Amino acid sequence: MMDAGIEDNSNHNFSCYDVRVTDAAQNGDTFVYVIKSQQISSDTEYRVEREFEDFEWLHHCLLTQEGVTGLHGIIFPPLPAKPGTFLSNSEAKTKKKIESLAMVDDWQMYCRALEEYLHLVTAHPVLVKNPAVHSFLKHRELPIKTKVKKGIFNKLTQAVEELRKEHHKDIDDFFQNERDSNLTLTAFTKAAVEKFLEIVLTEQTLHLGIGQDDDPADYAFAKMCLKLSEVLDTVKKNFEKVAENDLNTLGFNLELHSRFQDAEKEMLFRRTCKLVDVETANKNLGQAKPHKKAAMEDIKKAADKEFDEISGMAKVEIQRYHRERVRAFQKALIELSDSQLQTARECCVELKQQLAEFKQLCAE
User: Fold this and answer.
1) Exposure letters 271-306 (e unless 16+ CB within 10 A, then b)
2) Region 167-181: what's the mean pLDDT?
3) What's the predicted TM-score (pTM) here?
4) In terms of Cα–Cα distance, which of 50, 1, 60, 58 is closest to 25?
5) Are strands 30-39 and 17-27 parallel, antiparallel or unpaired?
6) CA–centroid distance for 142 within its chain
């Protein structure tokens, strides 16, 4: 019954909140983000200010909440990396390319990434029920936050655990195929993000390299040269707009999808760890001495129950994830096509007008 209930809820990516991250302001060494939210069923709008550590606290609350059946089977919405944190070589190159684009200077893209994270959380049928979500969006002051441990020892322990268990053969073909697919797509998606950003960076380079806003006096007030400078300026603005369209639509979605691939990988690994626990419990039960049989049987039943709950939740989450990724990519491609078409039309109108003016100059 639990799985059916979750599946019914997950068929709709409907958020009970309208959430917007409207601004970011520097406060010393940190940035403060302004979040405005309103429940769909209410007219009351809430305004709170949050630092990145507050987002980390919320994410930690979601990961560690108690009393949720199959919690480890959830694909948790990925939280964007903290600005200025250490990244892998691939992530660092991607971040460097993004930061080289002028559009990131005002933090609009990062605010949008945080806004999308909150939208994904509030649209999740299980995560939105966590009291921490409502506190985060409504209360100016958050409860006393438990510091999230991020020591190097924890990272090393996790890395060793992954090496030991990530290639463990699954007993369910559905999950084994999903793990194999995730492994392949994660690499391809990260490569796609890098290549796409190279395209955007090239477009931005063309924008910067075409005609500067020079003083018309440099052209000795020659009408033809002045008109040519206007044409170059139109082409320059077109490249700038094209790059902006790319980054705001497909680029944004590719980067989010890359982080979601990592989130799914983490969920599949948690399930694999539980599978190893089940197999270990079965082995221990078979080798247990008579006076320990009952205790081993209880451990086995508990492990089986938790594994089944996680697997049930995971199947629903994977189906929901694939459905939403298709929808998101369709939306991004439509938005990209519409924005590029609109940009091309606007550029065409300007160039036609300038061509007519050129012809008039030549006739004089």
Assistant:
1) bbbbbbbbeebeeebeebeeeeeeebeebbeebeeb
2) 93
3) 0.79
4) 50
5) antiparallel
6) 24
